Amino acid sequence: MGPGPPTDGDSSSREPAIRAYSTNETSNYHQIKFITMAIRAALLLVRATPLQFSFNPKQALVLKQNNRNYAVKSSLEPPDVQRLAETARISLAPHEVEEFAPKIQQVIDWFGQLQAVDLQNVAPAIRADNEEETLRDDSPEIFENRDAILAAVPCYEDSYIKVPKVLNKE
Amino acid sequence: MALTFFRGLHTHSFLMYPSSFLSRKNGMLYCTMKSIRGQTETQEKSQHQLKVSTQTQSRKHDDIFKNFEAIIGIETHVQLSTLTKAFCSCPYNYGAQPNTSICPVCMGLPGALPVLSTKVIESAVKVGLALNCNLSLSSKFDRKQYFYPDLPKGYQISQFDIPIATGGYLDVDIPLEFGGGHRKFGITRVHMEEDAGKLLHTGNGSFSQVDLNRAGVPLLEIVSEPDMRTGIEAAEYAAELQRLVRYLGVSNGNMQEGSLRCDVNISIRPIGQLEFGTKVEIKNLNSFSSVSRAIDFEISRQALLHSQGQADQIVQETRLWEEGAQKTVTMRKKEGLADYRYFPEPDLPGVTLTEEYVDGIRCSLPELPEMKRRRYEGMGLNMQDVLFLTNDINVADFFDSAIAEGADVKLAANWIMGDIAAYMKNEKLSINEIQLNSHELVELISSIKGGTISGKIGKEVYTFLILFIIPLSSAIEHTFICCVVSKLILHLIIA
């Protein structure tokens, strides 16, 4: 059998979830992450088609503010925040679920601007790539500081990492 | 001097599983309840009772089986025998002390980045070519995300929509005792991924233990088309894959060690029906014989339900094969499909292959088992000999060098399959480890053929050759001396 996830689907056998720290912190963190990803994607498009991508300088100022409605709505479904939180193992109070949904929607809409780009003459790329080869030889090297790694494990007993028993057995 | 110790039985010592457990009478269909292994005293009584009832049942089963065909596909995970893990330089040694082969990358510590090794790509291309696949010159890695204690990063680096190889096939020869014949099974895809760690469950239920030595070890996942129809075909497909990866030198393919793992997907449908039945997955198969038996059991289980009008009891689920009880049991019924939230792995560049690179590897491939079998058949050997000689690439190479020096094909085959194989089995040695090389075998054969020594003496000479590192002439001398001495002693006793 290959490495596989537990084949259960119900939420009763969940392992301990991470509590969201605070509303503001997480939404900022998410936004920053999405922004950097958007910039990466935008840069790729700019490199590929310098003529077709039209960048409106006015929009650049608008991007910095949170509470704008964007003209191009994303064609994705509205986020099912409850499900997203479950799959990410983040526990949210009901009021947080309600608060987060429109904020996440805003970020998705912000990305949605990319859909305005005309991709007629652009060949699809399977992923964003650099030019250099980044491969490694098959020569073993033992990591020097394994002790430090193991010392940082919360529960390490008899040379094994001790974990709570997950209900799904193999 | 009776050398019956070395006059071995003509053994199929290299076949992966003994044929004794299967009854030859029934041909294709086997009732697993007839062949119960691992008996204990308590089981023997019930076994006897079962035998009586199963004989009447097996006739009923055969009737039921006639109306259904099984559709079987196999997903195989092959652990590559590279020196390092897939994305970091940690060595991997089976059986090492737990949690000794770790580093920030394979432990999934924050900030660590994966770097792919060239050997993994090379192995994947070798296997893709050997399976006659179309290689994707541009492929990528994706994250397969789920949470489990043996998965340090919370995702597995795999290939989702653009695997490195697709659309191939594997040629398999079914051994004679299972009906013989040639089959061609389709291969859907081959892709690269990393292994998870090992999760051990302790006896008392409060906690489990994780060993991350294995986390990050490269795997090749080989998915077959659902072309198999019986347990035997599935077991032979798996055996052929094992032969193939051993021939290529990319893996040692040991099911017991976990370097070759098979999951079976099986469904049955009434003969003539076009649409597939409900698919059931079977895990925890540790040998080729379990593959065969589990499939037979599952076919009979599903056919029985169908015949009793309870076909809706067959649900899409994962079942475990229990070796002790010789049956499949339900694991947990799937509540909807798992959502792995695949997306392209941002920390790894795409995998680009050039035509020259692929051609270079294609040229370096050894003669594959299928080609060897056809070549040996062409030499006039019968199928049984062919299957034996091609099972282990080292045995085939030994045979080939003997033939190259001019030895008689049939004689060389007989020596290898008879005495030499028996010796290797007794001493638990591989053909590279015994004290007889192919050159000496050639000399021995030509001495016998040329009349220098008789066949009977030849056997005794062979014993000296295989036990001691001495040239053929000395071995012949020693044999004669021993012969003379033993005859003398005999004379003295009689006289």
From TrEMBL, chain A:
Main subcellular location of this protein, as a coarse class: mitochondrion
Domain of life: Eukaryota
Subcellular location field: Mitochondrion; Plastid, Chloroplast
NCBIfam families given in the database record: gatC
Gene3D superfamilies: Glu-tRNAGln amidotransferase C subunit, N-terminal domain
Name of this protein: Glutamyl-tRNA(Gln) amidotransferase subunit C, chloroplastic/mitochondrial
UniProt-listed Enzyme Commission number(s): 6.3.5.-
Transmembrane segments: none
CC terms in the record's Gene Ontology section: chloroplast; glutamyl-tRNA(Gln) amidotransferase complex; mitochondrion
Any single Pfam family the record assigns to this protein: GatC
Family membership noted in the UniProt record: Belongs to the GatC family.
UniProtKB/TrEMBL annotation, chain B:
Residue span, Asn/Gln amidotransferase domain: 397-493
Entry keyword set: ATP-binding, Chloroplast, Ligase, Mitochondrion, Nucleotide-binding, Plastid, Protein biosynthesis
SMART domains: GatB_Yqey
SUPFAM superfamilies: GatB/YqeY motif (SSF89095), Glutamine synthetase/guanido kinase (SSF55931)
GO (cellular component) term, any one: glutamyl-tRNA(Gln) amidotransferase complex
Coiled-coil ranges from the UniProt annotation: none
MF-aspect GO terms: ATP binding; glutaminyl-tRNA synthase (glutamine-hydrolyzing) activity
Enzyme class: ligase
EC number assigned by the record: 6.3.5.-
Residues making up the signal peptide according to the UniProt record: none
Domain of life: Eukaryota
Function: Allows the formation of correctly charged Asn-tRNA(Asn) or Gln-tRNA(Gln) through the transamidation of misacylated Asp-tRNA(Asn) or Glu-tRNA(Gln) in organisms which lack either or both of asparaginyl-tRNA or glutaminyl-tRNA synthetases. The reaction takes place in the presence of glutamine and ATP through an activated phospho-Asp-tRNA(Asn) or phospho-Glu-tRNA(Gln).
Family statement drawn from the similarity comment of this UniProt entry: Belongs to the GatB/GatE family. GatB subfamily.
PANTHER family per UniProt: GLUTAMYL-TRNA GLN AMIDOTRANSFERASE SUBUNIT B MITOCHONDRIAL AND PROKARYOTIC PET112-RELATED, GLUTAMYL-TRNA(GLN) AMIDOTRANSFERASE SUBUNIT B, MITOCHONDRIAL
Name the record gives this protein: Glutamyl-tRNA(Gln) amidotransferase subunit B, chloroplastic/mitochondrial
